[in-house]
Amino acid sequence: MPGGRLTQQDRRHIAAGLSEGLGYAEIARRLGRPTSTVSREVFRNGGPGGYTADRAHQATERRARRRKHTPSAPPQATTTAYGRDPEAVREFEARFIDLLVQTGLPRMMSRVLTCLYSTDVGAITAKELAQRLQVSPASVSTAVAYLEEQELIKRERDPRGRRERYIIDDDIWYRAFMASVQRNLTLAEAAQAGIEVYGADTPVGARLEAVARFLHHTSQDMNQAAEHWRQVLATRPTPGR
Question: Most exposed residue of 12, 76, 100, 128, measured as fewest CB within 10 angstroms of its CB?
């Protein structure tokens, strides 16, 4: 049925359609399903490049079993700001968190960063973070301290009162990127110093020299690329024009 749950056979058709290079709309048309159903199914289970029917079906069954053992939560809103689909929003946030974790960011920090990115105002207090994520203030404090250190968020005084709030702005990723460049340069300098300790003509010295050269050159390339794209993005067209 168009409104029923996807079957394993449906998922095999989706996987086959993706392998043929079909778009979500065409796959959905062939299945007699809404396009959003297909896009959410693929996005939730590995994306276009990682979707497999059997794995998606098994993951869905696991999620269903977990829901049976999870205490009932308050009713979810049927709509959100700008008419967004709440289910699609939740699935996107879960997927975004998983991707951040895959890059090496701890899960709690990934949840906080995703929470900020999915807030239209781009700013939120520690209390609001704890309430939205249903975690302790201590967990929030640890997470925001880490994210500040990585230059991924900023702290400012909340104009509504004495509390501080955490924000993201257009330069957040630039600053985080440049912080990474600086760390690479620090490692390059340490490797260069190590050459004098071990000797330039020794195997260790040669290894450290290769590390220092690599990090110096890639850091220069990263710095130039960051500055270039910062200028390009600063001149992007204003929405609506």
Answer: 76
Helix then strand then coil, in percent of the chain rounded to 5, is: 65, 5, 30
DSSP string, 125-171: EHHHHHHHHT--HHHHHHHHHHHHHTTS-EEEE-TTSS-EEEE--TT
Torsion angles phi and psi, residue 162, rounded to 5:
-85, -15
Between the alpha carbon of residue 141 and those of residues 30, 108, 174, 229, the distances in Å are 49, 11, 23, 32
For 92-143, what is each residue's pLDDT tens digit?
Answer: 888 889 888 888 889 999 999 999 888 888 888 888 999 999 999 999 999 9
Cβ 51 vs Cβ 18: under 8 Å: yes
List the strands of the sheet with 123-125, edge to edge: 123-125, 164-167, 154-157
CA distance 36 to 24: 8
For residue 156, how many other CB atoms are within 10 A of its CB?
11
Tokens matching residue 3: 């409104």
pLDDT tens column, 77-93: 444 567 778 888 888 88
CA dihedral 77, 83, 85, 86 (to 10 degrees): -30
